[in-house]
Amino acid sequence: MAFIKAISYYLPDKTVTNEELVAEFPEWTVEKIADKVGVNQRHVTSSEETATDLAIKAAKSLFEQNPDIEKEDIDFLILCTQSPDYFLPSSACIIQDRLGIPTSCGAFDFNLGCSGYVYGLAISKGLICAGIAKNILLITAETYNKYLHPRDKGNRTIFGDAATATVISTEGFAEIGNFALGTNGKGAENLIVRTGCSRNPQKTNDVTFDDNGNPHSSDHLYMNGAEIFSFTQKNVPIVVRQALEKNDLSMGEINMFVFHQANSYMLNFLRKKIKIEQKKFFINMAEVGNTVSNSIPIALVDAQKEKMLNGPVLICGFGVGYSWGATILKYSDIHHINTGLIFD
What we know:
Radius of gyration: 19 Å
Order of helices and strands: EEHHEHEHEHEHEEEEEEHEHHEEE
Helix content: 25-40%
């Protein structure tokens, strides 16, 4: 068996409020952004700050807030990010060194977005159940704002930067259940940054603007919102049902549903479609935005602050890839999530 033992998160000090965005895009209003997206502010890295820097701060917070967890006990480090410092080496290797985790620790990156935390838990549980590791430090870190065009008012209202750190171990406060996972690479073109890697290494500087003034550029993040919405409303209900079946649970037995915090409109649509009671559906993106792979662990920490987590909790991630996944976290009667949260 594998358990979550601790979770912490880190948010960059700089924030971008709706008022600041409206000053740049006067055709919008503060109320329109809040109603449409469900976000009041989002945290954004400085030009010098990378996902690795965020990851290290999140991990340091976890160790500071959980003195019973020693760096020397970590025998595997996994980083989920789509914004690594370099093509090579893996950022996980840099993090191992900067944190002072023993060199006997295995470490690697994996590239996934909004489903990344669920996949990270699946990888971690596999390593523990196979006897390869006993204490895994799973880090998510993302700086999507570095991929956004300055005039991309739509995506700039949505995304926030963040990092989280989770220790998965042979004991802890929440047992990790069985997984339902899925992939459909046919949707790759609908959420993509086209240049900068081996397929298109050079920037194209091909930005154009549509009739609404929205930029389209191979050098920045492109998201086809309509197609992403269609993908989620089709696949999320299916993966939720599969996760319930694989864990021999019914909808009524789940005490809380924690989905990837995409945007409030999409989340409420999914809640109604799946027929989840509002009191059992946690949304917390108002002050942080859509933080990609970080959104589920941030939500778990915040939900625990409000004493909302007990018994079976279903988590579900979905997005870029397309990639999706869900599992059950079985909380014990006496449990603890580190609510350590630090700002720069």
